[in-house]
């Protein structure tokens, strides 16, 4: 009997397990642009356009390969509105009672598929290097899960940058050579290549413009690639022009350069247009032929076979309630400045403005600017999570939630990271050029012009002393705070409290 083969908007790989298990001559592929997926958070218009255009092109490619594909557009009169409802409609149309699906990257959708009155087979997502079972086995019996040890296993498993059973260059991790501030005057940095427009993209842009005009984010100009060939072009460009300096300037931030030496491939990897192993093999080859140094190539490969796989492992290990965690009991509302509201700080509007224009910000902007501020200010992690899930073109819950709730907000109480990523303004000043043109003074510790990160940093440590003072990785910070003059500490806390009150009242901060 005919089976339906579900292909979701982030499953655009011809190696997808559901496609591999199906029979091209008998089964019917179901793809659908649906209101539930387009609306579970107010996605950035660029993200919706990227997914819809890439879905339409992938459907075309499948048809060319001989598949029968049913494709429902968002504005089709018969659109049933959700993925399960579309499957039911197609089941009736084709007389099918079975669905083959690759496990979705979100518990919400897994549950919805399992609740359907059809027989749904959920296959493992083999596009990742570490399966859910393998991660559970690795995690079993460990007191703490640390990415570094998981990463070594992935290096051994893939053989990437291995010299026999030893790591290439004698060390697993070359971060010591990385993390330098960028040079503002480097005229040779090139942005990722922009995609030329085409009729499919234009049609999707008109649809998104008409339907999602109120969502935060600039739709045009739209320069994302929307097929595998384009994604490979971006990868090539990165390997040629940016990989050699990736490690060295990985943490740098510059006002007039949103990309620096980053790959800007997260959206392609997560939608299935690139495979993690091919990306890492390309980077390894660049090292082997002498094009890129080991510190950069190791650092880049670690992000993909280390962090990306580890983060996914945590999402599926921890279960559906992960997104509700709030270990630090933070309850403040996300300030309007995250949606483009006015602020006197200079770093935040740069990260937010770039996010609005490009649906992109690099890791350190996400972690140490927008994430750091929300954590220091005690914002409700559920609201922070929703923001990150909405605004980035590469955001799907399996990868966004552990990064936001775990790594960035410490809402999981230390599953992803052993200590919270918090810093005062000094870190942002060292790694960026933001502070030079800020209303606030990064060197001021108290007073009307004190950098809010300076005030809130100590406020955070002080209010969470019971939880963190005994953490060996934070003891030095508490010793510094405790050595400060009592009157100074009281002033810092009072100024921080006043700042938070102004934020709560909706004043411009
Ligand atoms: P590069 O800096 O060039 O890195 C190369 C690749 O490594 C990325 O494309 C990505 O696939 C992988 N990678 C690097 N760091 C991570 C990480 N921590 N977790 C998973 N993969 C990683 N990444 C997402 O893909 N989707 C998200 O929704 C997402 N949300 C985040 C939220 C927060 C609060 C933070 C701190 C990080 C988040 N990240 C997310 C991780 C990281 O910021 C992005 O992967 C990266 O910025 C994507 O840009 P790039 O392709 O230029 O990456
Ligand atoms: C993110 C997204 C959006 C905006 N729209 C669709 C869609 O219309 N149809 C679809 O199949 N997938 C879409 N997606 C991706 C899904 O939300 C994603 O598959 C789940 O969140 C699981 O990762
Ligand atoms: Fe941001 Fe503080 Fe620097 Fe201003 S001074 S840009 S608020 S870190």
Please sum up the structure shown.
The chain has 509 residues and is mainly α. It has helices at residues 17-21, 35-39, 45-64, 83-94, 107-114, 132-139, 147-158, 199-211, 228-246, 266-271, 276-288, 294-318, 347-358, 363-377, 381-391, 397-408, 425-431, 452-463, 465-468, 475-483, 486-504, and strands at residues 4-6, 28-32, 68-72, 98-102, 119-123, 162-163, 166-167.
Summary keywords:
Rossmann fold; binds flavin-adenine dinucleotide; binds ligand DLZ; 5% strand; 509 residues; mainly alpha; five-stranded parallel beta sheet; binds iron/sulfur cluster; 7 strands; 21 helices; DNA Cyclobutane Dipyrimidine Photolyase, subunit A, domain 3; Serine Threonine Protein Phosphatase 5, Tetratricopeptide repeat
Tell me, rounded to a whole number, the average pLDDT: 96
Distance linking N and C termini: 63 Å
What class would the helix/strand composition place it in? mainly alpha
Tally of distinct domains: 3
The CATH class of the largest domain is Mainly Alpha
Radius of gyration: 23 Å
How many runs of DSSP E, i.e. beta strands? 7
The CATH architecture term of the largest domain is Alpha Horseshoe
Q: What is the N-to-C order of secondary-structure elements (H for helix, E for strand)?
A: EHEHHEHEHEHHEEHHHHHHHHHHHHHH
User: Helix tally?
Assistant: 21
Which small-molecule species are bound to the chains here? flavin-adenine dinucleotide, ligand DLZ, iron/sulfur cluster
List segments where confidence is low: pLDDT < 50 over at least 5 consecutive residues: none
| General shape | globular
CATH topology of the largest domain: Serine Threonine Protein Phosphatase 5, Tetratricopeptide repeat
Helicity, as a percent range: 40-55%
What profile does the largest beta sheet have?
5 strands, parallel
How are strands sequenced across the largest beta sheet?
A: 3-2-1-4-5
Strand content: 5-15%
């Amino acid at each position: 009997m005919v089976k339906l083969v579900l292909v979701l908007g982030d499953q655009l790989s011809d190696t997808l397990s559901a496609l591999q298990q199906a029979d091209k001559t008998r089964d019917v592929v179901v793809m659908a642009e649906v209101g539930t997926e387009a609306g579970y958070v107010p996605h950035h218009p660029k993200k919706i356009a990227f997914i819809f255009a890439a879905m339409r092109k992938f459907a075309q490619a499948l048809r060319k390969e001989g598949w029968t594909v049913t494709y429902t557009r968002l504005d089709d009169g018969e659109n049933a509105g959700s993925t399960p409802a579309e499957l039911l409609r197609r089941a009736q149309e084709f007389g099918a009672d079975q669905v083959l699906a690759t496990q979705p990257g979100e518990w919400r959708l897994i549950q919805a598929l399992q609740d359907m009155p059809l027989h749904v087979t959920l296959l493992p997502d083999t596009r990742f290097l570490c399966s859910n079972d393998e991660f559970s086995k690795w995690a079993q019996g460990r007191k703490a899960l640390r990415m570094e040890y998981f990463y070594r296993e992935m290096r051994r498993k893939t053989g990437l940058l291995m010299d026999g059973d030893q790591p290439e260059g004698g060390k697993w991790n070359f971060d010591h050579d990385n993390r330098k501030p960028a040079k503002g005057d480097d005229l040779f940095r090139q942005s990722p290549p922009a995609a030329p427009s085409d009729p499919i993209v234009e049609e999707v842009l008109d649809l998104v413009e008409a339907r999602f005009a109120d969502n935060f984010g600039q739709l045009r100009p739209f320069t994302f690639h929307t097929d595998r060939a384009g994604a490979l072009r971006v990868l090539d460009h990165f390997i040629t022009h940016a990989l050699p300096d990736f490690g060295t300037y990985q943490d740098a931030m510059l006002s007039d350069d949103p990309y620096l030496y980053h790959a800007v491939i997260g959206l392609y990897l997560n939608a299935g247009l690139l495979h993690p192993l091919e990306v890492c093999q390309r980077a390894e080859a660049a090292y082997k032929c002498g094009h890129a140094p080991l510190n950069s190539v190791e650092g880049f490969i670690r992000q993909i076979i280390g962090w990306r796989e580890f983060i996914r492992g945590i999402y599926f290990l921890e279960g559906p309630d992960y997104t509700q965690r709030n270990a630090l009991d933070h309850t403040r509302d996300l300030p309007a400045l995250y949606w483009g509201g006015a602020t006197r700080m200079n770093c935040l509007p740069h990260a937010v403005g770039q996010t609005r224009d490009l649906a992109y910000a690099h890791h350190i902007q996400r972690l140490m600017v927008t994430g750091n501020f929300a954590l220091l200010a005690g914002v409700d992690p559920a609201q922070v999570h929703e923001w990150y899930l909405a605004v980035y073109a590469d955001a799907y819950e399996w990868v966004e939630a552990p990064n936001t709730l775990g790594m960035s907000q410490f809402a999981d109480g230390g599953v992803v990271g052993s200590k919270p990523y918090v810093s005062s303004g000094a870190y942002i000043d060292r790694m960026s050029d933001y502070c030079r043109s800020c209303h606030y003074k990064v060197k001021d510790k108290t007073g009307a012009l004190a950098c809010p990160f300076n005030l809130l940093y100590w406020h955070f440590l002080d209010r969470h002393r019971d939880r963190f003072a005994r953490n060996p990785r934070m003891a030095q910070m508490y010793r510094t705070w405790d050595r400060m003059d009592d009157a100074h500490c009281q002033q810092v806390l009072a100024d921080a409290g006043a700042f938070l009150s102004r934020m709560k009242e909706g004043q411009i901060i």
